[in-house]
Automatic annotation (TrEMBL):
<comment type="similarity">
    <text>Belongs to the peptidase U62 family.</text>
</comment>
<dbReference type="GO" id="GO:0005829">
    <property type="term" value="C:cytosol"/>
</dbReference>
<dbReference type="GO" id="GO:0008237">
    <property type="term" value="F:metallopeptidase activity"/>
</dbReference>
<dbReference type="InterPro" id="IPR002510">
    <property type="entry name" value="Metalloprtase-TldD/E_N"/>
</dbReference>
<dbReference type="InterPro" id="IPR045570">
    <property type="entry name" value="Metalloprtase-TldD/E_cen_dom"/>
</dbReference>
<feature type="domain" description="Metalloprotease TldD/E C-terminal">
    <location>
        <begin position="228"/>
        <end position="459"/>
    </location>
</feature>
<keyword id="KW-0378">Hydrolase</keyword>
<dbReference type="InterPro" id="IPR036059">
    <property type="entry name" value="TldD/PmbA_sf"/>
</dbReference>
<keyword id="KW-0645">Protease</keyword>
<dbReference type="InterPro" id="IPR045569">
    <property type="entry name" value="Metalloprtase-TldD/E_C"/>
</dbReference>
<dbReference type="Pfam" id="PF19290">
    <property type="entry name" value="PmbA_TldD_2nd"/>
</dbReference>
<dbReference type="Pfam" id="PF01523">
    <property type="entry name" value="PmbA_TldD_1st"/>
</dbReference>
<protein>
    <submittedName>
        <fullName>TldD protein</fullName>
    </submittedName>
</protein>
<dbReference type="GO" id="GO:0006508">
    <property type="term" value="P:proteolysis"/>
</dbReference>
<feature type="domain" description="Metalloprotease TldD/E central">
    <location>
        <begin position="109"/>
        <end position="218"/>
    </location>
</feature>
<keyword id="KW-0482">Metalloprotease</keyword>
<dbReference type="InterPro" id="IPR035068">
    <property type="entry name" value="TldD/PmbA_N"/>
</dbReference>
Length: 462
């Protein structure tokens, strides 16, 4: 089908541009996935997904006109193209002047990893989590692999193909003391095959299952968190949830241009501590937000967004870059061929600093130590945020003491960045699925151990 699309692309693109426009594009996607869910000590559901189709996009007067279909016949694609163009005629386009093709290299392809072996991963995780403590009353686990082939042909003469493979695995455990329940969660995965589960130092199945159970049991016996303003040390183990939510979205150019970002108009200004450098990098090997080309055919890039506290730039897709006379930064991503590409993060992180993580804790007389974030909410217009703390501890006289529960971090993204006064040399990653405008995108985020000198903790007043 891809070869036929390449052959017919000039006619389809010409039809799209028949009534004028700045840009036309054909986006082809073939996605295949397998998802296994475990609940109540058994495999509850096995899902096989196959979805393929084409999206046709016309940018006219810097506005997007879009249509999609799973009927890939030439006649149907031409009909959609002419409908989008609102007119018939001859448009001139360039096709085939630039061609690029790449793929995510994996050692163990999902197609070569049997369903029984996938099942065994979940059953093993269930056994490990339940064996951790008799307080574990519920375990759920999910294993998902995705193989995605895309091809983009556009009116700039570019033809790009990319094959992407991802495997993700996560476990949730619930602990009970008959009066209370507490949830623990852990995950792993990325742009990688089933070599993800190769045993190097620690088997990922054991680690993820044990961590989920450990957090559940720990939270069950934790003390209520104190409320008030105090220093907060966020462990590298927490991943970069805060930087992704409280800062990253505000650096997406579409939100900036719509006046929905607190960072609008601040290029070249100091927006964070001089200890802070923020990077978005889709080129990192095996990370969940990595790829060779984005969903507009732009090569993956490493973008320094904030350098030593100074705002250097925003993330762009093609449309926003066209409007502002910029170049796309390779951040145009879409959930599927059924959606238009929008500006999205990839792998976003605060770069490692020079401080010893242990010294950061030892130098904190009193405060909260965050090991794992939970859910949260962010207002990108003013930067205000609230994040749940899934696993946290008190710091007293430079030492980690007792675990706490019911804590939340309440603050403001720009202020939190300005108040960072220590950045460790460690760097810890986490995976996730980012939601925006009704679309999802696989991402990773990270940060080193860092200290925010003062932040409001929502908890129990003492």
């Amino acid at each position: 089908m891809k070869d036929i699309l390449k052959e017919k692309a000039p006619y389809i693109l010409s039809a799209l541009l028949a009534d004028g426009g700045e840009f036309a594009e054909i986006f082809y996607e073939d996605l295949r996935s397998t998802t296994l869910n475990l609940e109540d000590n058994k495999i509850e559901k096995v899902s096989f997904g196959i979805d393929f189709g084409v999206g046709l996009r016309l940018i006219k007067n810097y506005k997007t006109i879009y249509g999609y279909t799973s009927d890939l016949s030439f006649d149907n694609l031409m009909k959609i193209a002419k409908t989008l163009a609102k007119a018939e005629g001859e448009g001139k386009v360039l096709v085939g002047q630039k061609y690029a093709k790449n793929k995510v290299e994996v050692l163990i392809d999902p197609d070569d990893f049997s369903l029984s072996r996938k099942r065994d991963i979940l059953l093993r995780a269930n056994d490990i989590a339940r064996a951790y403590s008799d307080k574990i009353v519920q375990v759920s686990a999910t294993l998902r692999d995705v193989k995605r082939d895309i091809m983009i042909i556009n009116s700039l003469g570019e033809t790009v193909e990319d094959s992407q493979t991802r495997v993700v695995f996560f476990v949730e455990a619930v602990a009970s003391d008959k009066n209370n329940l507490y949830r623990g969660y852990e995950s792993t995965g990325g742009s990688i095959g089933y070599e993800l589960f190769n045993e190097d130092f620690v088997n990922p199945i054991d680690y993820v299952a044990t961590k989920a159970a450990e957090r559940a049991v720990l939270g069950l016996g934790a003390k209520p968190a104190p409320a008030g303003s105090m220093p907060v040390v966020i462990s590298s183990e927490a991943g970069g949830t805060m930087i992704h939510e409280a800062v990253g979205h505000g650096l997406e150019a579409d939100l900036v241009s719509q006046g929905l970002s607190v960072y609008a108009g601040k290029i070249g200004q100091k927006v964070a501590s001089e200890l802070v450098t923020v990077i978005d990098d889709a080129t990192l090997k095996n990370k969940n937000g990595s790829f060779n080309f984005d969903d507009e055919g732009v090569p993956a890039q490493r973008k320094v967004l904030i350098e030593n506290g100074i705002l250097k730039g925003y993330m762009y897709d093609r449309l926003r870059a066209m409007k502002e006379g910029k170049q796309s930064t390779g951040n145009g991503r879409r959930d599927s061929y059924k959606q238009i590409p929008i500006v999205r993060m990839t792998n976003t992180y605060i770069d490692a600093g020079k401080d010893n993580p242990h010294d950061i804790i030892a130098d904190t007389k009193y405060g909260v130590y965050v090991v794992k974030m939970g859910g949260g909410q962010v207002n990108t217009v003013n930067g205000d945020f609230v994040f749940e703390v899934m696993e946290g501890y008190m710091i007293e006289n430079g030492k980690i003491t007792y675990p706490i529960k019911g804590a939340s971090l309440i603050g403001n993204g720009p202020k939190a960045l300005q108040d960072i006064d220590a950045v460790g040399y460690d760097l810890g990653w986490a995976i996730g699925t980012c939601g925006k405008s009704g679309q999802r995108a696989p991402v990773s985020d990270a940060q080193p151990t860092l200290r925010i000198k003062s932040m409001t903790i929502g908890g129990t007043a003492i």
